Each structure stands twice: as C-alpha cells, then as structure tokens.
Amino acid sequence: MLDLRLIREQPDMVRDALRRLNTDAPLDDILQLDEQRRSLLTRVEELKAQRNAGSKEIGKAAAGQERDKKIAEMRQLGDTIAELDEEVRDVDERLHKLLLEVPNLPDPDVPDGPDESANVIVRHWGDPKEPSDSIAPHWDLAENQGLIDFERGVKVSGSRFYFLRADMARLQRALITWMIDIHTREHDYIELTPPVLVRSESMVGTGNLPKFGDTLYHDEESDLWLIPTAEVSVTNYHRDELLDAGTLPRKYVAQSLCFRREQFSAGRDVRGIKRVHQFEKVEMVKFVEPEKSDDELYSLLDNAEQILRKLELPYRVVQMCTGDLSFVSAKKIDLEVWAPGSEDWLEVSSCANFRDFQARRANIRFRTEDGGRPQYVHTLNGSGLALPRTMIAILENYQQPDGSIVVPAVLRGYLGGQEVIEKQPGIW
RNA sequence: GGAGAGGUGGCCGAGUGGUUUAAGGCGGCUGUCUUGAAAACAGUUGACCGAAAGGUCCGGGGGUUCGAAUCCCUCCCUCUCCGCCA
Predict the structure, then answer these.
(1) Residue A307 near residue A174, CB atoms below 8 Å
(2) What phi and psi values does residue A152 have, to the nearest 5 degrees?
C-alpha cells in the first residue's frame, strides 16, 4: 500500500511512477475521496468536541429543566454525528479498497520496458552446457530412471501433479536440509516452520489479496488460503507488531509447500516439473530498517547465489524491467539456472525489495533508536531456492550417458556419501 | 464438540455508566551519583488522523445511551475442565 500522504502531496511523482508500470490506478478517485474524507472528518470532529463538552456538563448538573433541555440538545447532536460517521465510514471503505489495488512504485533504477523481453541480464556465472542429443530433458530422464511418476500423479490429483520416487525423493529432502543449513549456519537466518494455511488478512498483508485471489487455493468452509510461498506466512509472522529498536534486521528462512492454481498458464510448460500446482521451496524473508534495504537486497541475492555456486550450476542474474515487476515489488532480481536438456533458463529464485509497501498493509513497524515515532520496516524476500527447478537443473546438468546422475559434491554428505543416483526400480 | 473464564499502551496489569485526561509496575529515554558501568534515586515515556485546534483508539464489527473500556448482540482469539484425536 502506498502512503496516502505521498499521493496527496506528490501526485505527479506518483502518477509518473505508475505510468512507467503501464497501469491506470484510480489516483483521481483516491485524491477526491481523500479530500472528501478530510472535510467530513473536520466537521464531525467539531461536533464531537461539542458533544463531549455538553455531556460533561450534564454529568455535573443537578436534575432539572436545564439538564433535560441539554440532554435533548445532545440527543439531536448525536443523531447528526451518527449520520456523518456513517458517511465517513463509507468514504473510508471506498478509499481503502482503492488503495489496496494500487501497485508499488518501481525504484528509479529499474529499467523501463513493456514485458520480460526488456529484462536486463546483469551477469552470468559458470559455463552453460551446450544442448545435445545425449542430454535428455528431465521429464524423459526422470521417468526412464524411475525417479518421477508423472502418470500416477495425474491419476491421483490431476495434471501438474507428480510423485517423486526413491532417490529422487531423498535428493529433495537432502537439498532442503542442506539449503536451510547453509542459510542458518553461514548466512545467519533463523529457521521457521510456517503454517501453509493462512487467513485472508495475511494474504492482504503480502499483497496476494484482494487482487490475486484467483491464483490461490481457498477453503471456503474455514475461509483459509493455501500459501503460494512461505513469504506469506513469514512476512505476516510480524503482522501488527511494533518491533523493538535494535532488533533489526530480522532474517528468517522457511521451507514450505507452495500451492498455485496456475489458472492462467494452461498449456504452458506442461511437461515435467517446471510449473506445477504444489512444490517445495526454501524462502528467505528479511525485515530491515528503511535505509538498509538497498544493501540488504544484494546480500539476499548473494545468499541465494551461494546455493547455486555450491551446487556448481551455471546461472544468470536478471533484473526485472517495469513491465515484469510484481504488484508488490519496487525492485526484483531473478536467478535463472541453465537446464541444457529442456534448453531453458529456469527461474529458481526471485529476490525483491518491497520497501514499506507490505509493511503498511501488514502494519509492521519498528521503534527507532532515538525513541521517535514508530516507522514502517522494509520487507524483502528471496527464494533460496525453489526445489523442482533446482532438481531439474541437477538432473540435466549432472546426467551421464548411461542415464545415471552424479550427486553434486556438497550434497553427498547429506546422502550418506552416495556419489551417483543409479536407475531406480522401474515404475511398474 | 460440551461447560466455564478471559482479551486494556512496547510488555504486565488496575479499572463494572460521568473529574479516567486509562492507575500502578516492567521496559525505554534523560538526569543525579560514578573514572566508566551496574545498583539506587528523580524526572520522562502510548498509537493513529490533522497545519493546528481538536478528534479517534481498551480484540474486530454492530447496538443501547446526552455520555460506553464499563451494558447488549455478533464474530475472532486465548486459557481451564471434559470429550475426541496423530
């Protein structure tokens, strides 16, 4: 949510920033409602001051004609106040609703562009393998090797569901444990195991609601939502809190299942496990002081990159242009790992600075060291990393001509020293 | 699921219709003392809207009343006992 005062005081700046996003936020309606709200408020508050004074007199006065007259007077005043209160509530509600639909403003250094074609490749790491006939895409490889059962996933749950089998399931567990160990031991994050079902307020806090409800799974009976990322649970961990001075930054890492309806990607990436309805992800979330968030984005990015480097997987760093920013981000940088079998750069991590956008929605503030007024924190998050795509990259980069897969050196300790994943018992 | 008790400032906690302008404590900040710190003592310290005056806020929402933290309705949450349960 944007600061209403910013919209009021620098409407042209806000308008220009939104124009870069190619969105048509109803700024004029917002300004008009804001104006209306404030003039109503002035009137009703004046009347309330009168009523407070009048009621106080009644409390002191002895019973009698004077007192009865005053009471009648105040009753009438009360009716007027009730009417105005009603109007204020209505205007407030409309204003708030509009504000919730305005996207975050892009940082000045975000490149302009209409869509992903204008994203900027910042740099590469590692040597991407040339695709060749001897490098199979993971969907063929994994099925042949008995590592993933796609058919039964579809039978049990539908398209975009699958079973990991045998050493593949073990590999995922090992990866999760290893990634979390790196982030907690080497990068100083606190591990959280979060709920994957959350209330609507939490979804509003991170910006998933009200706009993107149709991409989420929802249980109507209990009115709970399945999270699309642990970002939702972990960011809302501090919702409606006033954090103590000196406790920032707060850094959390959480593994969770993520659930996505993928309603609008029908027909895209239908093969394999690149785009699925349910997947594991290790997610990092930071709550930081506003002046630090620029630097914190880069250290977050580095934390994610460390995982790919240790796995020795070639990747590239891509900065999103204005046309490819998410609703809540001011700045977003993705890591894309090379998959030579699929011949695709896979987004395995998305690192973003939300500035105070989420903090306003979720009401997360901190008390400054100097004891001044509480301020909103800045929130950031980044995947560290998404499991299916990381496993695609491992399968496709580490496969050998006979179909076996070499275990990346850093993971062997987590797999009892195992060096190679051989063909698993067939899918029978 | 049944019965009961609760939800008050950053935290704990008093307050059952009108000088409450929410007591008191903890924590924070400032000062005295000290080489420095701790302790002790003293002072100070809620959030939100507003340029200000002022107004709003006692779990959320609604109601009763001239006036509600206080009474009523409703929802959410916590705790205790019972039942069920991985």
Answers:
(1) no
(2) -75, -25
Q: Is the pLDDT of residue A183 over 70?
A: yes
The ipTM, to two decimals, is 0.83
Distant-in-sequence contacts of A10-19, Cβ < 8 A, 24+ apart? A14/A105, A17/A105, A17/A106, A18/A102, A18/A103, A18/A105
Q: Point out the residues of A that are catalytic.
A: 260, 275, 347, 350, 389
Write down the pTM of the prediction. 0.92
What sign does the CA torsion over A135, A140, A146, A149 have? positive
- Protein-to-nucleotide distance from the CA of A146 to the C1' of B43, whole angstroms: 75
Nearest alpha-carbon partner for A283 in A257, A238, A251, A253: A253
Tell me how far CA of residue A90 lies from CA of A99, A104, A421, in angstroms.
14, 25, 63
Structural domains present in chain A: 4-99 (1.10.287.40), 116-421 (3.30.930.10)
Q: What is the DSSP-derived secondary structure letter of residue A172? A: H
Q: Which residues lie closer than 8 Å to A66 by C-beta, 6 or more apart? A: none
* More confident position, A154 or A59: A154
Q: List protein-proximal bases of chain B (any atom < 7 A from a CB).
A: 10, 18-19, 28-29, 47-50, 52-56, 62, 65-67
Contacts of A423 (CB under 8 A, 6+ apart): A144, A145, A146, A403, A404
Overall average pLDDT of the A281-287 stretch: 97
Q: Tokens for A82, please give them.
A: 């009730």
